[in-house]
Amino acid sequence: MGTIVLTGTVVLVLLGFGNPLYWLAAVALLHLYVRHGRGPSTTGTGTGTATAAGAAPTSYKAYRDRRDQQAKWERRYRRERGL
């Protein structure tokens, strides 16, 4: 993802020599990437409840909590839907 953003920024800067609006677009692209494009931050609380689905837990306790919650959901699904 970062390579695509950097390549797009370079292209916009090169096009900016003909039209300065492309320079503004390049700055906006970089700003959006830095602000939103890097994924979740690693400075979580460590409880596991704030991690996104599929994100690695930050501690073993968070892993256990997430694993237990997933098992609870799976038991409930099997009980309600029946296999």
Features:
3 helices; 83 residues; mainly alpha
Spans of 5+ residues with little confidence (pLDDT < 50)?
A: 45-49
Helix content: 55-70%
Rg for CA atoms = 21 Å
Beta-strand residue fraction: under 5%
Order of helices and strands: HHH
How many beta-strand elements?
0
Please give the largest β-sheet.
none
Question: What would you call the structural class?
Answer: mainly alpha
Q: What average pLDDT do the residues reach? A: 79
Helix and strand layout, with pairings?
Elements lengths: L1 H14 L5 H16 L23 H22 L2
Helix pairs in contact: 1-2
Write a compact overview of the structure shown:
This protein has 83 residues and is an all-alpha fold. It has helices at 2-15, 21-36, 60-81. Residues 45-49 have low confidence and may be disordered.
Description:
The chain is mostly helical and 83 residues long. The chain contains 3 helices and no strands. Helix 1 (2-15) runs antiparallel to helix 2 (21-36). The chain is elongated, with a radius of gyration of 21 Å. The model is unreliable at 45-49 (pLDDT under 50).
